[in-house]
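Re: that chain you flagged

S.,

Sorry for the slow reply, it's been a week of failed gels. I finally had a moment to sit down with the sequence you sent. For the record, here it is as I used it:
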Amino acid sequence: MNIIDSSLWLEYFAGTDSGNIVSELIENTNDLIIPTIILYEVFKKLLLETTEDNALFCIAHIKQGKIITLNDELSLSASKLSIEFKLPMADSIIYATNLKYNCILWTQDRHFSGLNFVNYFEKKVL
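Prediction finished late last night. Pasting the structure tokens below so you have them in one place:
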């Protein structure tokens, strides 16, 4: 199972090289776990940069994976992880979901660098 971090979803939709790295994972929707915070982050960014129709189209694609809502168990786990690894709230929710569902998290976010079950790679700067 895989979680694709928000930044890589955006790269995928933009058709960048970074997005291409995870395209096979994204297209294998049966193995995708989607924390609801990722829906929030991606939709917000797309609303700011494109049209609402485009944002909804992209979200419809993301929602083909298994959506995991934030519940009390994940909230408490995320709080502990936030303190332990100094993660921002959204990142701690994503990482708690990642650990609970035995996933690999694919990300370009430095907050996750060095954590277990994370495939981190630096964003290419042009």
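What I noticed first: Residues 79 and 92 are 7 Å apart (CA to CA).

Talk soon,
D.
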